[in-house]
Amino acid sequence: MSSDSRAAGVSFVCPVYNKEQYLEEVCAAMRAQEGGFDREFVFVDDGSSDRSVELLRDVTRDWPDTRIVVQENQGPSGSTNTGCGLARLGFVKLVGSDDLLAPFATELLLRRIEETQVGAIYSIQRYYRDKSEIAYDRAAAFAERSRVVEDHLYQAMRHNFSGTTGTLFRTDAYRQAGGCDPRVFAEDFSLCLRIARHRPIAMLEAVTCWGPGEDPSRIMTGRKNQLLHDYNAALHYFLKDNPDLPARHRRLAFRRCAGRAWKWASREEGRGWFSYFWWLNAWSYAPLFCDFAWATGETLNAFALSRPIRPGYGLRAQL
Fold it and tell me: Domain coordinates of the chain in residue numbers?
């Protein structure tokens, strides 16, 4: 394999945790990716207790350039860092272990990221209740042009840019960023923040993948308090790690975190006016004498008042 082909190739990285009911279709969609680019496949079984490992070995037994790593459970951030740390090609295509890629997804994202020369590109993922809802429009997808995000770090913080299966990253951008934050359970938002700290990012308004919309094990659809907690946790640790961020970024992070915490505490936990999270939210509008890293950390407890939260495993990314 030449150095040029390696630079243009794609490492498909799929962390797996107890997803045996989806894996055959997920793997089939990965194997069916169109395009003449070089590719490799890395699966990380993150301590599954079902038959995920056996299924993966059976389904991929005749695949070239495929590795299956089995590790003790480290959560989405830890398993994603393990897989991406093994990537040998120029781009990383993350794939959720219950998501289905459009046949053209990787080819399209690869074209657009090379056109824009950004560090990461994000497209649209849809969710189904029944698989009969899944539909792709290749012509419409390729007609969409990508948009390089202006003021990309600020906008990533403002709009919670996240997602896995609808993304494509440059491998060197992933490594420059240090990977996902292992202190945060969910992997995707912390990764976007860390990449946007160093590289521009782009958005593509094209549907490239679908996932199950009513699976209670999905953070996005079944564990809303974990999702919101991890948005805030990603911002909290990002501020701690980057004390030199512009003041407007630090104020935005506090405002976003405090607003989420107050809405959750009032709507889901019955916390009233002048409760602690109300005061944090009010303070975020005029944050005088504020230690923003500390203040964002104070918002995290809102999401664990009556429901459990899984913290990150705190492991250093091995890249």
Answer: 3-221, 223-304
290 Ramachandran zone, left/alpha/beta (phi>0; psi -120 to 50): beta
The tokens of 109 are what? 């994202």
**What is the predicted pLDDT for the residue at 89?**
98
Q: Look at phi and psi of residue 184 and say left if phi exceeds 0, alpha if psi is from -120 to 50, else beta.
A: beta
List Cβ<8 Å contacts ≥24 apart for 137-142.
137/207, 138/102, 138/103, 138/104, 140/206, 141/102, 141/104, 141/108, 141/206, 141/207, 141/208, 142/104, 142/108, 142/206
- Which one-letter amino acid corresponds to residue 301? N
Question: What is the tens place of the pLDDT at every residue in 217-257?
Answer: 666 556 899 999 999 999 999 999 999 999 999 999 999 99
Question: Is the model's pTM score more than 0.90?
Answer: yes
Cβ neighbours of 234 (radius 10 Å)? 32
Evaluate if residue 121 carries a pLDDT over 70. Answer: yes
Backbone angles phi, psi at 53, to 5 degrees: -65, -45
**Torsion angle of the four alpha carbons 17, 223, 122, 141, in this order, in degrees rounded to the nearest 10:** 90
- Give buried/exposed letters for 287-307 (b at 16+ CB in 10 A, else e): beebebbebbbbbbebbeeee
**59 vs 48: CA distance, rounded Å:** 17
Q: How far apart are CA 236 and CA 304, in angstroms?
A: 16
- Look at domain 3-221 and name its CATH class: alpha beta
Interatomic CA distance for residues 210 and 8, integer angstroms: 25
Position 156: which residue type?
A
